[in-house]
Amino acid sequence: MNELITSINDAVWGYVLIAALVGCGLWFTWRTRFVQFRMVGEMFRLLTDSAVDTVVEQTQERDWGKGRKHISSFQAFAVSVATRVGTGNLAGVASAIAIGGPGAIFWMWVIALLGAATAFVESTLAQLFKQKHKDSFIGGPAYYIQRGLHLRWMAILFAVLITCQFGLSNNSIQANTICGAMQEAFGWSPLWVGIFLALTALYIVFGGIQRIAHVSAFLVPFMAIGYLILALVIIIMNYDLIPHVLKVIVTNAFGFEQVAGGGLGATIMYGVKRGLFSNEAGEGSAPNVAATAAVSHPVKQGLIQALGVFTDTLVVCSCTAFIILISGLYQVPELNGIALTQSSLQSEIGSAGPIFIAIAIFLFAFSSIIGNYYYGEANIRFITPNPTVMTIYRICSAGLMVIFGALSSFELVWNIVDFFMAFLTACNLVAIVLLGRYAFRLLDDYRQQKRKGIKEPVFHRRQFPEIEDELECWE
After folding, report:
1. Could you tell me if 148 and 125 are in contact, meaning their C-beta atoms sit under 8 angstroms apart?
2. Which of 40, 219, 327, 414 is deepest in the core (most CB within 10 A)?
3. Whether the predicted model's global pTM rises above the 0.90 cut
4. H runs (alpha helix) in 238-350
5. What's the per-residue H, E or C state across 291-309?
6. What is the sign, positive or negative, of the torsion defined by CA atoms of 338, 343, 345, 346?
7. What is d(CA 221, CA 171) in angstroms, rounded to the nearest whole number?
8. What secondary structure letter does DSSP report for 336?
9. How far apart are CA 346 and CA 360, in angstroms?
10. What does the alpha-carbon distance between residue 279 and residue 347 come to, in Å, rounded to a whole number?
């Protein structure tokens, strides 16, 4: 079974999805006039602004009363980064280098630079077509497929795929990586670590999106800053090796050197696969939480989610890659995944390295587990409001799949995720290409308001008369 899944993954990734991801990234970059580069300053401004605009506060208070439980733009950013910044940054980067060679990092950078425009489009669309759900917002690709394209079957297909990918299989990878790190550092049994993870995750996910958002908003900055400080210290200590590391990445990226991967195709494929797993741009995951934020204009959350792609791949993934390449241990055939990252760090800072990575990966991956769970929840709710179905999903996502991942092999859990990720991404890319024109018009409107001196642009659904009836959250 594992060999069959591997063959399917190689065929889909090798010939179809890479071209689609790069093509869409180029198209969205061109049509948005390089939004991911030109509006970086606005991204940071929005992230540090007040949590919720006054106009959104007033609208929610009028429509839902005093009991609303919105989450802020920053909290939505934190939840999405929680799912991005995880095993992909530590185990995923190591796997890409071990199998595809150092050049895979170059292709991770490429897919991130292009994917930021794709992330902007999908998250802006999620905000545009979001819906009211009890006392908060809900949305994502399933919602904009149904409301924008009126294709219920395609929306359900996406909802099923993302639930299988994030809510189930992705959580098995997080648990697998945590247990591997704990076993390497402390010799702890994967079974007992898996049970502890499952019980803790179940407690949090039964608290809803507000509890998930609060936990993520606390964990993400703490873990990211700590890891980045350590990585920067190591890079500064080895500053004389940086030119060599960059040379190895670039020359291997174009096949001038072949290290560990056996060919240029493997280098590109693993760079793109692990880059997508890490930053999720175009996969259709981040829009689910982007839709929950309370903002005055859809473009605001689109810009913030684009910033998340940069944060993940260009910063955190690059730090891991530099540590591994500086150590030189990527050429050891027996090392892969989190073990390679731990061994690389140990070679730089001693026996404390594996312990630090074990703690870091626990925070990274655990926040990913609870963030991944929410992606499935939003889409289960799209399919059915049945509370029994939701309870079964919570137990499977945060409980059973966590234990399954703890006890499964590294190769099996990654193959399952690659399989679902391919079809999930293909479904979302079709939708955002067809609906992209709305995101382009929203961006033009946002820029026009900014040019007029309006600090906080506001969107009204009457600006889109052809779909006004589908936009229930914009007065």
Report:
1. yes
2. 414
3. no
4. 242-253, 264-279, 286-290, 298-309, 318-327, 337-349
5. CCECCCCHHHHHHHHHHHH
6. positive
7. 21
8. -
9. 14
10. 28
Q: From the CB of residue 397, how many other CB atoms can be counted at a distance below 10 Å?
A: 29
What gap in Å lies between CA 346 and CA 48, rounded to an integer? 36
Supply 439's token pair. 């995101």
Main-chain dihedrals φ then ψ at residue 136, nearest 5 degrees: -150, 180
Cα 34 to Cα 282: distance, rounded to the nearest angstrom:
16
| Beta bridge partners of residue 138, listed in sequence order | 131
Question: For residue 137, what are the β-bridge partners?
Answer: 132
At what angle are helices 18-31 and 103-128 packed, to 10 degrees? 60
**What's the CA gap between 407 and 190, in Å, rounded?**
6
SS3 (DSSP) at 278: helix
Non-local CB neighbours of 438 within 8 Å, separated by 6+ positions? 124, 125, 128, 148, 464, 467
Q: What is the Rg, in whole angstroms, of the alpha carbon atoms belonging to the chain?
A: 21
> Tokens 């006054």 sit at which residue?
54
Q: Which amino acid is at 309?
A: V
* Residue 310: predicted pLDDT: 82
Q: For strand 131-133 and strand 136-138, is the pairing parallel, antiparallel, or unpaired?
A: antiparallel
